[in-house]
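Form 7-S
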Amino acid sequence: MLVIVSFLILAFAAVMLGRSFALSEKRSSILTNAQAAANGAASLCEDGSLTDWNLRFFISVIAESNGNNIFITDTNGIVVSDSSRSIVSPYTGRQVDADVMEQLYRTGSFQKLTTLQDFYSNAPVYVVALPITEKDDEKLIGYIFVSSDCTEIVRKWNATATIFVFTALIILAIALLFSYYSSKRQSEPLREMACASRRFAHGDFSARVANTGRSDEIGELTESFNMMAEY
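Output:
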């Protein structure tokens, strides 16, 4: 029983660690994507304009290549451009929550699983926000927000984990069956010896233990027992 419990604990730990690692890798990828987008935006905004079509095309390409969503705000948190290919953006003109902007002002970055105050209405997404600064004088001109839905990777990992756990349980069941029959085979001659010993105790010296031709210690013990019975 202890072996089964230990096995199940290890399997659960492996599943949770794998899930955590997969999410960590995804979040690291989003951060790298945000850093590249912020650097590219800074290079394209030499005149300080965040509404340039070249900039919008750039973040659209970056977003599509990584499956992310990107939008850019001015220093007040008002969205001025995004990666949507639609002429009319669903985000342009909206303002990011003041608490998020305050953290950006204070720490220079933002990373969180959030809806951004209903920017993303379906479900929380992982959001990374970084400042955009002019190349020459490091003047802050805006912020770039990169987001990605992590539910898909969690769903895929859960499916993989289910298969892993199911396979592990099958292997465990096979191992337990093998162990049961192996133990039974090992103990059968010992039970026969115990039975023969009881018959000896009652004066019946005709009892013998079946010799199955085993060459291990049990086989040697069986042979010795039968030889003892002869005398």
